[in-house]
Each structure stands twice: as structure tokens, then as C-alpha cells.
Design goal:
single chain, disordered C terminus, Lipocalin, mainly beta, Immunoglobulin-like, five-stranded mixed sheet, about 5% helix, disordered N terminus
Length: about 500
């Protein structure tokens, strides 16, 4: 027991080191730090920045790369609540830096942020085959595209359209395999054999690849390894590409059914029988699944129950996959027409005649519908009226579905080529000739174009000198090099952003 009458004892070296360690740990724990609400997202995404360990009651400038985007105020504990900043539309694919710097002074913290866009399913998330985030390829430089890589299995067709997620390209092949390829190099990550041709285009959601096969099954594979998680047997071949929404997989089969399966287990939730094959890929929007059938109808089904809401009869088989935009369903038919139907009722708003089969699935962007026809043309139609804006002859039937990104339309043709067209005029900006017809539909993300060909290859195209031709991703700047914006306003009480245009 301590006796205050006893003489004090000198502090031993061990005690001194122990106390010094506590002091240093305390200092270390007080170092500024920031947390980002997301670490990977496309340009224009909203990022919430939270800070701790700053001096109490000081202003803290929040930067994206070198741009001062917002001003936070640390509280009495040296923390600040989430402050919203944007990832700029001009931020190129790659690593960027979010910084928080005390005012005045240069103390602060940094966190890496990866700008990356995904194309996870046939339609993309917007059901329109439109990538609004592309900022590398444009009408001025797309003519410099060249083949960056190809992944080839000679003698087997690649009809499937790629999906791109987390730096990996997923695609099916007639050689019975689903492939995962590195997006930058085309190197094979894994393959999974279904035993029969894979024409279906994969959908990648929450680390799982969903795809159909000619072996009559729908598969769920682990995206990182290709390990099978589950399979669901249908009564015939599955060439339809799955759509995944709210934990449910929607897909068609040549047994005439549309299926809704539990995404986590593959359990059947409901099925709806049509009058013929369902090669069309469903589009799911606002609780409704839209899909075509070879019985000539376009169907709108309640996504939760499978109950038919309406159907519209065209004059031919509907293998085209619907696109849904602004309350309108756009779809092609073997009767040679492109249709615009009211999404709520199925009432026809307009139709445009191409004169030959339309099995291409429409893309919709900026008030324009882009679609191909077996007569060899790609068409641009005014979305509200169906008025022809332009058409472009490719020299072969166009079964491939267009993809639209940053003012450019990408599409394949049965003349063995893939094209880049000016979205405003239809002028040919670039083309590449493969070894066989191109039924696969291109996808465009992060400055690269991916597409398959009947020559057995999956191709990746990029600018001649890579992304550096446009500009390099951000380098990490020292905090003392950042320049604050004195015009930024103090955040209002309860606000989550200041000075950020989102």
C-alpha cells in the first residue's frame, strides 16, 4: 500500500519507456483520418467523407485530387460528419485521391478512390445499353482504337456478349465454357464448363455470375473463382441473358417459359408460359419484367408474382430484348419493325419499318433509339416519335445490339466487323474486321471496347497509346501542395455538403 510518508522513488527506465509509449500511442491515435462511403465508383458519383482526429473547431478542406470541393468544420472532438463531394465527370479511370486538410496549416489525411465503371449485364443497370460515364473514348479519338488483346479458342463461336465487373470480363462460348478474363490483358482467370454451348450473356451481381446454357440450365457461379453455387434446370436450351433485380434472377428458356429464381439459392419463385421459345432477355424496371417471345408477343409481367399485366402482338417472333426508358418499351420484331409501347399499358406509340428482321436489341440514349436490322443498316430513331434521324449501311446483317457511350455507337455486323459510329450523324468513325460474323453485342467501359466474334475470339480494344493519350489518372499530391478555395462557404447546420455540385 502506498505510504505518502515514504520518500519518493526514482522512475525506472522501464517505467519511463512505458509512459513514453502511452504518450506516443495517444499522439498516434489523434492523427487525422478520413473514411469514404465508397472506394470504387464511376465518375459523377457522390462520395461521403467522414473525418476524425483533427484539431477541434477548425475548418477542413475536402479535395478530390487537387480540386477543393467542400469545407467541413470539425467539432469539439475533432471530427466532422459526412460531407458530400462528387467524383468529377472528367475523372479518368484509375486511382485518385481524396484529401482532408486543416485550415490553416497542412495537417490532414488522404484516402484512395478508384474511378471505375461497370457493365454488369446485357442491358446495363439502366436497361438502355447506354454508358453515361465514359470519358476516355469520344468522337474525336475513337478512330485510334486498336486491338489491345484477344482471347481465342479457334473453331468455336462467341455469340455471348461480355459483362465487365471489378476489372474482369465475363463471357460465354460455344465451346461450352463461361470465361473470366482480365479486363486489361485478356488473360484467363478461370473457366467453367457447362457441357454445352453458352450463348447467353452473363449478368454479374454481388460477386455472382448468372448465365444460361444450351444444357438447359441456369447457373450461378462465384465471380472470383468460377465455383458453381447453384444451377436450375429448365425444359430446354437457355440462350436468354439473365436480368437480376432485387435479389431475383429473371430469364427465358426455349421451353417457352419466363422464370423468376431466387438469386441466392436458385429456388423457383414463379414461371410464366408463353406460346413459344423465349430467347429474348428480360428488362426489369419499376416492378415489371418486360420480355419478348417467339410467339410474336411482347409481355409485361409483374416482377413479384409473374402475373401478366399486358401483352402486345407484333407480326413476327420477338427475339429482340426490350429496352425501357422514360415509360416507354422499345423492342424489335422479326416482322421487320421497331416498336415503341407504353410501358404501363402496352399501347403502341409508334413503329418503324426496316423491311427485314429486327432481332437486335435497341439502345436508348439522349432521346434517340439505336437499333440494327438484318438488312445491314443501323438506325437512329427519335425516341418520342420514331422519326428516322439517320441510317448507316454496314455491309452485312446487324443482329448485334448497339452500345452507346459518349457520343459514339458501337455495333457488330455479319460482314465480320465491329463499328464505331457518330451517334449524332451515323458517320463511320472506326471499324475492325474480325475473322467471322459478329453477333455479339459490344460493351464500352473505362476506355475499352469488348466484343466477341464467331472466329472464336473475345476482343479488347483501346486507344493506340492506352489511356495516356487522353490524360493520366491522378498522382498523389503532398498535402502542402494543395491550394484551398477561400470562396467555399461554411456548411449549414445539418447539411452534408458544401460547395459540391452533385
Amino acid at each position: 500500500m502506498f505510504d505518502p510518508r515514504e520518500p519518493s522513488q526514482p522512475i525506472t527506465s522501464c517505467a519511463f519507456l512505458f509512459i513514453a509509449g502511452l504518450v506516443l500511442c495517444g499522439l498516434a491515435s489523434a492523427a487525422p483520418s478520413i473514411t469514404l462511403s465508397k472506394r470504387t465508383a464511376p465518375p459523377t458519383s457522390r462520395i461521403l467523407v467522414t473525418g476524425h482526429g483533427f484539431k477541434p473547431n477548425v475548418g477542413v478542406d475536402i479535395y478530390f485530387d487537387s480540386q477543393d470541393e467542400a469545407l467541413a468544420i470539425a467539432d469539439d472532438a475533432g471530427s466532422f460528419s459526412p460531407i458530400a463531394i462528387p467524383a468529377p465527370a472528367s475523372a479518368l479511370p484509375g486511382t485518385h485521391w481524396v484529401s482532408a486538410v486543416e485550415r490553416p496549416g497542412h495537417a490532414g489525411a488522404q484516402a484512395a478512390f478508384l474511378v471505375r465503371t461497370e457493365w454488369r449485364r446485357f442491358h446495363r443497370q439502366n436497361m438502355e445499353r447506354h454508358n453515361p460515364y465514359e470519358n476516355v473514348l469520344n468522337v474525336n479519338n475513337v478512330g485510334s482504337l486498336q486491338r489491345k488483346w484477344s482471347h481465342t479458342h479457334p473453331g468455336f463461336y462467341v455469340d455471348s456478349s461480355p459483362a465487365v465487373a471489378r476489372g474482369t470480363v465475363y463471357v460465354g462460348s460455344y465451346d461450352s465454357n463461361v470465361y473470366a478474363l482480365k479486363a486489361d490483358t485478356g488473360a484467363e482467370v478461370w473457366s467453367y464448363s457447362t457441357g454445352y454451348a453458352v450463348v447467353s450473356s452473363p449478368a454479374v451481381v454481388k460477386g455472382v455470375v448468372y448465365v444460361g446454357s444450351y444444357d438447359r440450365n441456369v447457373y450461378a457461379l462465384k465471380a472470383s473463382t468460377g465455383a458453381k453455387l447453384w444451377s436450375y434446370p429448365t425444359g430446354n436450351e437457355v440462350s436468354s441473358s439473365p436480368a437480376v433485380a432485387d435479389g431475383v434472377v429473371y430469364v427465358g428458356s426455349r421451353d417457352n417459359n419466363v422464370y423468376a429464381l431466387e438469386a441466392s439459392t436458385g429456388a423457383l419463385l414463379w414461371s410464366y408460359v408463353t406460346g413459344s421459345w423465349v430467347d429474348s432477355s428480360p428488362a426489369v424496371a419499376k416492378g415489371v419484367a418486360y420480355v419478348g417471345s417467339d410467339d410474336g408477343n411482347v409481355y409485361a409481367l409483374n416482377a413479384g408474382t409473374g402475373a401478366k399485366l399486358w401483352s402486345y402482338a407484333t407480326g413476327g417472333a420477338v427475339g429482340s430484348s426490350p429496352a425501357v426508358a422514360h415509360g416507354i418499351v422499345y423492342v424489335g420484331s422479326v416482322d421487320g419493325n421497331v416498336y415503341a409501347l407504353k410501358a404501363s399499358t402496352g399501347a403502341k406509340l409508334w413503329s418503324y419499318t426496316t423491311g427485314l428482321y429486327v432481332s437486335s436489341s435497341p439502345a436508348v440514349a439522349n432521346g434517340v433509339v439505336y437499333v440494327g436490322s438484318w438488312n445491314g443498316n443501323v438506325y437512329a430513331l427519335k425516341a418520342r416519335t420514331g422519326t428516322l434521324l439517320w441510317s448507316c449501311e454496314t455491309g452485312g446483317g446487324v443482329d448485334s445490339s448497339p452500345a452507346v457511350a459518349n457520343g459514339v455507337v458501337y455495333v457488330g455486323s455479319q460482314n465480320n466487323s465491329v463499328y464505331a459510329l457518330n451517334a449524332s450523324t451515323g458517320a463511320k468513325l472506326w471499324s475492325y474486321r474480325t475473322g467471322d460474323v459478329v453477333f455479339s453485342s459490344p460493351v464500352v467501359v473505362n476506355g475499352l471496347v469488348y466484343v466477341g466474334s464467331y472466329d472464336g475470339s473475345v476482343y479488347g480494344f483501346s486507344l493506340k497509346h492506352g489511356r495516356e493519350e487522353a490524360a493520366a489518372p491522378s498522382r498523389r499530391l503532398e498535402l502542402k501542395m494543395l491550394r484551398l478555395d477561400l470562396n467555399l462557404k461554411m456548411p449549414q447546420p445539418g447539411a452534408t455538403s458544401s460547395g459540391a455540385q452533385l
